[in-house]
Fold these 2 entries.
Entry 1:
Amino acid sequence: MDRYLLSELIPPFLFGVGAFSSIGVTVDAVFDLIRKIVESGLPVGIAIQVFLLKMPYFIVLAFPMSTLLATLMTYSRLSSESELIALRGCGVSVYRMVLPAVMLSLVVTGMTFVFNEQVTPTANYQANRILDSALKSDKPILKQQNIFYPEYRDLQEKDGTKSKILARLFYADQFDGKRMKGLTIIDRSTEGLNQVVVAESAQWNGSQSVWDFYNGTIYLVAPNGSYRNILRFEQQQLKLPRTPLSLVEKSRDYGEMNISESLEQLTVEKLGGDRQKIRKLQVRIQQKISLPFVCLVFGLVGAAMGTVPQRTGRGTSFGVCVIVIFSYYLLFFVSGAIGQAGIISPFLGAWLPNFIFLFIGLFLLIRVARR
């Protein structure tokens, strides 16, 4: 029975992976690459390379949807042809009948997790790098512009309460991969001494763990705002944190980082104190963990819906599949936005859709089993 059910589940699953990933990559990548070939002169060879590197991202998105399609279509067909009734007549419970679907879903969950961690982030990063390099080949490639890094410290008030105040503000116009350029640093970290550093460029000196500033001026200001001193320099070493450099080196889009890299980025963002960025990254990390388990949830939901006694064709099953997918991802984006807004925790913002659809699947399964 297990071999038979798996042989019925695997073909529609593979069909779903091919269909959903093809639709996704066509709508999102192919049209954009064709436009870049025509309008920006992107070489066809580069476009093909970028296309292949973007495929893993859409395959990962197709895994959960294909699991739902396979389980729903297979069990709906078995139900409409009375094969499930025959199995139940032989003493096989509904829970035992859906076990192959659950096992297949667990395997797909593991595949999704591996793709999300090992393949997709690197492929997305390489695709974007290759595309940017090809489109900007006649321009200097800058890793990042407008680097803004605030650092805060806790202040103990007289009444015992704590508040955060700005300790240091680091700004650079751009980073060319080696040096920061156009820098302005406001340093209030030392008690009784405020200074403003303006420099043409700066470079991190790893051997001495200091910053080497070039062609700039240091303005020393007393706590009451009065002038104290001005120091002009051609080269000056300052003991400042390396965090701004770490920030630009590790700065990637969320789709270009795995969980480990996202946690490292979160540590850097926490030093900066930008609560909105911290909250967004916390939600994204939880979503990276929760997304693979959508395969298990969809597998259970599809099998439970398919075991309901009915007379439906493949077209109806496909339509129900589309409705379920649309409902899930609508809830996924809404709960994620609510989590980023701080209304609910990042964990709940990422996992709430899974919990809701898992409850729906279990409810349907128990209901069918009691009939």
Entry 2:
Amino acid sequence: MKAVRFLEVGGPEVLQYVDVEQPRPAAGQVRIRVAASAFSSADTGMRAGVLPIPVTLPHVPGYDVSGTVDALGDGVQGFAAGDAVIAFLPMGEDGGAAEYVVAPADVLVHAPTSIPLADAAALPSVALTAQQALFDDGGLQAGQRVFIVGAGGVVGKYAVRLAKRAGAYVIATASPRSADAVRAAGADEVVDHTVSSLREAVAEPVDLLLNLAPIEPAEFAALVELVRSGGVVVSTTAWMPAPDDAERGVRSVVVFVRSDLAQLAELVRLVDAGELRVEVSRRIPLAELPALHAEAAEGPVSGKVIVLPEAV
């Protein structure tokens, strides 16, 4: 089968598009015929060796995957050959940038039926990140105010929709390019971060500050003043700590997304109910994944890109 993998950490040039042996599922695993995997900046960090996530070399990236069950290992229940599934794969194991991947059965859920199966690869880790940041780490409740910095990104729009669905008042930052999409996701207020001071744009204290953007540490620290006493600062920027204010009881949390079957199944239900929208900005063939890593090395890749094992 075809796969993209790297044998050593380094720049995009270490990625190879090669023929490899088709994996076989062990006990408790399934083999998935991949419909698509989703590109993530974390893949580039693991490839470069700068993220503290150990991988076994050679390594196939792509921890978000969609596809159909192709074979079952011993002891697997709840799935059958031909089932359409999605998964947030263990990040240290081989991912879905291949024609087939094996996965523990306990990370799979049945795929949404209302969208193309390939597009469903864009859902797992980003939607789980939004869910866990808002509710597990941030403790967001109905009637509270949340300020989402970087709402125009792929995690941000999920966060806006989930927060509004929970009954929160949502203030969100966005560029002019993404402002309409953030408004459509349900934000009550949209702040143009290209022209406005974020500190001055929020008139009343918020219960939760959720940062999804690579802002300067000093600017981030200044935003903590917007959080009410006893509130929470949550950040997905794992490369820098999230500021707090112990004197006022404002705590901080850095999000490290984890697999959660119940949450992922609920997110799938919301997609099929029309309450969440899965957005895909680009679809590329597997052979072009090394070029996409090279593009990401030059600057952020906007939107969600899915990688198809067959030519687009």
